[in-house]
Amino acid sequence: MTCQEQEQDQPAGLEGRLVDYLTETRYDGLPPGVVEHCKLLVLDSLGVALAGRNAPGCDAVAELIGGWGSVSGGATVLLHGFKTAPPLAALANSTIMHSLDFDDTLDESALHTFVSVLPAALAAAETAGKVDGKQFITALVLGADTICRISLGIQRPLSWIRTATCGSFGAAAAAARVLGLDRDGIENALGVVYSQTSGNAQGLIEGRLVKRMQPGFAACSGVMSAFLAKAGITGGRRFLTGPYGFYNLYEQGDYHPEAVVDQLGRAFPVSELSIKPYPCCRMTHSSIDLALALREKIENRPDLIEDITVTASEMVKTMVGRPLEFGTNPQVDAQFSIPYTVSAALCRGDVFLNDFELSAVRDERVVALAGRVVVKINPELAPKDILCSRMRIRMKNGAVHEAATLAPLGNPAKAMTREQCVEKFRKCLAYSGLELDEPRIERLIRTVDHLDELGDVTELIDLIPSP
Hints:
With 467 residues, the protein is α+β, with helices and mostly antiparallel strands. The chain is built from 22 helices and 6 strands. It has helices spanning 3-8, 13-24, 32-52, 58-67, 86-98, 114-128, 133-152, 162-178, 183-194, 202-206, 214-230, 246-250, 257-261, 285-294, 314-320, 330-335, 338-348, 358-361, 364-370, 418-432, 438-449, 458-463; strands at residues 75-77, 82-84, 305-312, 373-377, 389-395, 400-405.
């Protein structure tokens, strides 16, 4: 059966069923576990934003936007102390959140979600005024679910940056729900944002700073599309399955519509999102876990390693398995390198934010070991698999140490606890250099914990420090 035939079997059409779900779902219909995981994702996103405030490119984006003029009734650019037009605030805030590649992932699709939906929802909420926590959480869950569901229908290997392409739909959905749009409004917001959908992997493989901005473009276009829809602008209705819809134009018609609507309204993919323990591409995480697991076996003597072989999927090899080379942005190159991250884990016993500072990236000991790491394709793995990995360390004395994993830390199969998430938040705050006293830190964490009880989510924005 072709995708078009499968689509006809669905009375409301793929888009219609998705829009109905986005329109009809209410906070009371969200399982408690979904709500609690959403809160952890908010805390995690704010934490990585705090840590990323000084990352390369972030100040440049904020200063550029600030130079275009502040808007008293607009939305806040986090950590910079001014307001601007909501789409531009979403762009800046997303860039800050994604600057360290430390935000959540849907491992099955190798993409991020809250980095698009949270900035979009914040910008819309601050502009709309008096958006309560329950409405806000509902918008975030539905936005993230939109990204996840659209991405789960894709079968092709990574080419487009789906954090951005799928993310634009999620950002529009989240902003539309925050603004209280009706069914036609939500449908139009999704149709309008499709006209702005973009994002590709070229900047990723070249290690360019624009890679970390692509979710921001999605957040920006999502907010703009929701406001345009509210103003009466109409968008294409068959934004997913039309002759020039997303799946046919971007994915060459290779998609599974049933994955998009499977258990719609009963299962919430947002609960499957992973929180990252390491601030680098998720495709490096299984290898990092294995390196840390084997570190004891080599008795903390990386200098005695002859070579390291990592086997993973074709996509992992293509995206993060190349020999380590530094271009104009060495920190980005390191974030997207299994050879570097494995070597850092073996040499230092952890992989955290300081491991991607320029001095750490240029560490001769780590770079030398990275030169002895080879990544190979495991033909038995699905091309898109980012979870499974195997490592073989051969020592100069002939000893061999091996390990394998089916999923990295943070995946639902090995989920991070709330305590681990709070610890990550505190470590990110410490890394930021911002000086917050303990009562304010506790108040910020407690506010997120009780996000559903807020009468106005701007109370949360007010707790985020600015210089």
